[in-house]
Structure formats: structure tokens, C-alpha cells
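User: Hi! Is it possible to get a structure for several chains at once, not just one? Here's what I have:
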Amino acid sequence: MKNKASLKVNLLKSTVLAGAMALAGTATQADVTVGVLVPLTGELGEFGKIVANGVELAVAEVNAAGGTKCGPIRTVIADTGGNPEVGIRAATKMIESDGAVAILGPTSGVMVALVDLAKRTKTVIMSPYAGTITLNDLGGDYVYRTVSSDLGDGAASGLWLTDRGYKRVAFLVQNEESTISPAQVARDTLEAAGIELTDYVIYNPGQPSYQAELISVLSHEPDAIYLAGGQESGVTVIKEATAGGFEGEWLFTADLAVPEIFDAAGAENLNGRAYVEFADSDSSLPEYQAFEALVQEKDGKAPGPFEANSFDMANLIALSLESADSCTGEGINDVIRGVAEGGEKVSTFADGKAAIAAGKDVDYEGASGPLTFDASGTVAGSYSIQEAKDGAWVNVKFYPASAFE
Amino acid sequence: MTLFAQYVTTGIVTGCFLILATIGFSLTRRVEGFLNIAHAELLSVSAFTTWGLNAGAGWPLLPAALVGIIVTAVVGLLIGRIVYDPIRGHGPAVLLITSVGAAYVIHGAMDAIIGTGIRTLDIPLATTYKFHGVRITDYQMIVVGLAAVATLSLALFLTKTKIGLAIRAMSANPSLAASRGIDVKQTSRATWLLSSGLAGLAGVMLAMVATLSTDIAFNQILQILAVAILAGLGSLYSVIAAGLIVGIAMDVSVYWIPAGYRPLIAFAVVIIALLVRPEGLSGKKAR
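Assistant: Yes, the chains can be modeled jointly so their relative placement is included. Here is the combined structure:
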């Protein structure tokens, strides 16, 4: 129904648009389209759903506050399955057929594949979880993310492994750029701290078994294993290492920071000796608490991983549209950095809209953090370590962005 | 030395899994005369049927696995009859490409039915046994045991039963077999049931050892192809030898070179073997 109504509105769009431009600042019937491009299927499907939900929450808030000056935000959603080729096809359709001014939510591989398209079509792309270091070079113009780069994850992991006082640590790293680059950073931290690295194994995912990779690791009996891998390989590795007699502790990376792990790998194998590191919002921030309350109210549960980053992403786009000269990707790109820093601090779209209407410069402080973009369009990150306790992940340590200075 | 023996042992288990995964594929190759790429997806059908009955409906593993194997055999037979039979006359290249399409259709159907994320069977964690310092788990022993039983029964079936002999006759020379009064259609159906059932058995092993996603079965196709190519067109025994060679070479290689190159080893072995012996281990020429 909603789509049908939106379609009708869209048909009117071209005729109304001229009037809307003249009447900027007053409510219009036209809407502005934002694409949500996430993996709804495949290994990262669970994350994609959370991201889409976070974006929809923000859009609902924006529209409830009267929408942007370009009209209410309409979202079009497409599934990439994590596949860059599919992502490019879907993004092209969003831009050309649906008139999307921004595309939110691609995963690392898709994001990198979209960089050219974004710059060529002057469409802003933004991700709440693409940590890939490739974007450290490519990002900045039309390409943004509300999450820190993977290198930050590596630094946080390294800090935790050092803080924990392990003497001997083994690394098991999935053969992917997104897992190898943070692992290198963690490895450097450990070596600088004089911790013995018993093994550094890079393995290929998609295998039925990882016994061959584990032989040397288990024979060295490390105090802890740093496992940077996906869910499919991760669960098999955990089970095989446990069956093989590994009695040390674990540190996992963000892919395993989901409750399903306890069912799949067995809670009894994780409780009290498994930890997980992931980029996280500072839950002590009032902005985060307000967001958490909103999610509780709407969905009846706590926010999922990267949900706050997703919520912020949509709010940044809405505020940028509000303060931009034109309702286009180019307009957003011109003002987004200014919206994220310097000016009156606002944490909701409604407050920001009022401040902009009053002629003030705004600084959006999001649920996931202060959100200031560096030259590569990346924000500084904070990280959480959670412990496996009674079959659930529980916070044990928080590293604010200042911990890495 | 123990460490090296451990790599060899793990390699034997890997090899046995590859034998189970390849043997049905090779049988189809010999009797039907084409590379059935969709074979790997049949492992997935069996693995998820077993998972659905075991973890979903709460059945014990054994009956769940049996139903999984039977369902897979029937699915394989249906695909054979509905998809491949009508285009048989177009030759192996068309059949090969069609089988890629069939693989996509099965994969898409699994995605639609099963959905995202990972799945595991509701079975206890493997128990590890140590023999002279070398570890082996109960599930690994089951893989080795079943590979032995499956190949032995298949060998007996092909040499001692009427239908088995018909399958062999078909694989040696289909037109001669037909002219000698062998029911080609019935033999073909038996082959589909048998080869898909074997894929089903491999799928159950996959479900037991691995963490399931809808992608994992198809990830095995390259290694299945490697074993099948190395084995050549000959007997069952060449598949056993090829499976063990590829499995052991891959796992033992980790002793010297980084594990990231493990899949590469499978193909390095195939390339080297084929340079020396282009017709494969069996030594028979393609028909």
C-alpha cells in the first residue's frame, strides 16, 4: 500500500518539483528517495536486516517530524546478498529509476564496488559497518561511513589481548581483506607488548572442516586464540578446537557477536572463556540511551549490532537535505561534513530541523557517537568487548575512541 | 613426527570425505557422460533435509539422515528425468551447462526455504580419541568408516548384481549395451538414484562435521572436480586413490606452507598428475 501511494506521489513529483523549489521551506507533496542496499540473504543477512530496521526507524522519526524540506523520505530497499555485482545493479536501478539521492547500508565489498558509480552519478553512499581499509584511501567524497575503519578493530583487539595478560596467543584469520587487515594491527600490538605469537594461520572459508589448520595451533597450547572469521567457519573452528582439547580463551571479531553463536557452537563451550570485540556505540551517551529507549518502544528489544550507526546514517542524510541548497546527492555531499561537526549540538532530526530553520549551524551528535568525518569520510570509533556468560554476550570492557590516542 | 602423522591422519579424513562427495559425481560422469555440476548442490539438499528433521523436528540423527539420503536420491532422479533426459541428445556440453543452471535453481530454492545464517545439527560435540599421540574424533572415524563401507558396497553392487552389471555395461559402451538388450532407461534411473543417494550420504557427513550455510555444499564443487579429473574415467578404485591423494596432499601441505594455499594444492596435484598421466589415474581414454 505504502509503495503504491509513494508511486502516485512519485508520478506527481516532476510537476510538483518546480513548485517545491520555489516554495522551499514550506511543506510539499513531493518526497525524496533514499536507497537501502543491504544483504538480506547470505551469511551477513542478519546484519542487513538490523541495518534496514535502523534506517527505517530514523526515517519514521524524520517523517513524523514533518519530513525534510525536500519532502518526506521514501525508502527503496534491495538485497545484495553481499555480492558486489548484485549491489551495482541494484544501486544503478535505485539511482536511475527510483531517483535515489543517497544509498545507505552496503557491506564492505559492495561499498568499494560502488565508489565509482557514486562519484559519477553524484550520489552519496554511506555504510554503517563497512570497515574495509580500502575505503581509507577511496572514501571522503560522496563516500562516507558511520563506523570506524577495520584498523581500529585490530587496535582494540590488540589492546584487549594485552590487557588480559596472555603470554602466548595464536591467530586464526579468515582469508579476506576485512579480517586480515585488523589482524595485522592486532598482531603488531601484541609483538610490541612482547607477547608470543604461537601461530598466525590464514585460512580459507567454506571448508567442511578446519582440522588441518588447527593441528599446529593446538599443538602449541596457546593461552588464547584470536579468531577473526565468519560465522560458518568460526563455529566449525570453535567446535573442532574444543573437541581437540583446547582449554584456553577466545577472542572473536564482530561477525560472531550474535546470539546464534551460542546455539551453533554450544554455550557450554563458550561461557566464561570467550570474548568478542566489535565497534560499538558508547552506551553511556545520552544520545545512545534515547535511541535504545526508542528501539525498545518500537521493536520491544535492545538495538542490534550497528543499528545505532544505521539510525545515525539516515539522520545525517535527512539533516543534510534540510540544510543543503538542492535536494540532490551533490547537495548532501556539499554539506554533510558541516552537519556532522561545528555548531549547535543536536541529537534528533526534529531539533536539528528547528535549529536550521533558526539559521543556526548544527553539529549532529549521534546515537553511535559524536560522528566527525575524517578526510576519508570515516568516523573515529569506540569498541566493546563482551564476554560469553550463561549463553549470552555481556559487556565487560569499553574502549572509547580516546583509548587509542 | 607425531605432528606430521596428525596431518596425514587429517588428510585421510579429508580424502574420505572427498571420495564420498565425488563417487556419485564420477558415476554420473561415466554412465550419463557429462559433468553434473548440480551434484554439489545435492549435498546441500541432503544436509538441510537432515538438519530440518534433526534440529527442526527433533528426530534422532540416524532416521533423519536416512530420510535425507532418500529425499536426495529422489530429487536427483527427478532432476535427471525432468531436466537432463529430454536434452540428452544435445551432447555433454549442453548437459554440463544445463547442470550449472540446475545448480542455481537448487541453490535458489534452498535460499528461499532455509534462509540466512548458519545451521548446525543437534548432536553432541565430537569426542576425541588419541592413538600414539595422534588425535581423531568419532565423527572423523564415521566419515572414514562410511567412505569404506560405501565404496565397498558400491563395488559389490556393480560387480555382483544384474543392475550393477547393466550400469557398468552402459558406462563402457551405451549403444552396445542397448543393442544387447539392456534397458537403458531403467539403468539410467538406477544410476541417478545411486549417484544422488551417494551425494546424500556425503551431505549427511557434511552436516555432521561442518557448520551449514546454503553456500557450503557448492563450495566443494572445485575439489570434487579435482578428484574426478585426477581419477579419470576408470574404475571406482581410481576415485578412492584420487580422493586420498588430493585430501592428504592438501592437509599435509599445511605442514610446510601457509594454510591459505591449501585449496591450491588440490589443483597443483591434479596438474602435475595430468602432465605425467594425461588420461588420469585410471588410464582409460574418454569415449
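Residues 24-216 of chain B form one domain. The first strand of chain B starts at residue 128 and ends at 131.

User: Great, thank you!
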